[in-house]
Design goal:
By secondary structure, the protein is mainly alpha-helical. Helices cover 50% and strands 8% of the residues. Helix 1 crosses helix 5. The N and C termini lie far apart (46 Å). The protein has a three-stranded mixed beta sheet.
């Protein structure tokens, strides 16, 4: 059914975000002096996983989740650290995990440029980003 989320919904949405960032990071930096990056909070212990098992079993998974997953606060701090690092305004289009660079999306996503441009065109239309960026008063 076209109206149902597919098996790859999360992966597809993450890929679209990465492709958008790979294209827009460069143009935002050159045109507006805005530095755009993407950051992951890592694997975070949220209630999202509770739907993948019987409800009675979920509380018993807490000890293993505490060992393997970041707390929501740790995930948020990692994202903040990525944006607050001194190098954040010396470059653009990086995919970060805290202060560790995972990917230079501008270079490494170059092979997907055609799809990335389609994602940007769609996202620009539905979010009115150009109009908002033009009205940004520094």
């Amino acid at each position: 059914d076209k109206n149902q989320a597919g098996d790859y919904t999360y992966a597809d949405s993450k890929r679209a975000m990465m492709l958008w960032t790979s294209v827009r990071a460069q143009s935002l930096a050159f045109k507006s002096g805005l530095f755009c990056h993407a950051a992951t909070p890592g694997m975070v212990d949220t209630d999202l996983g509770r739907h993948s098992m019987s409800p009675w079993l979920w509380p018993f998974t807490k000890p293993i989740r505490m060992l393997l997953l970041r707390s929501p606060a740790e995930g948020a701090l990692g994202v903040a650290a990525a944006g607050l690092r001194p190098q954040a305004t010396n470059c653009f289009g990086r995919y970060m995990d805290g202060e560790n660079q995972l990917e230079d999306m501008v270079l490494e996503r170059m092979g997907e440029k055609k799809l990335a441009l389609e994602v940007v065109k769609w996202a620009t239309r539905v979010t009115a980003l150009e109009q908002r960026a033009a009205g940004y008063d520094r």
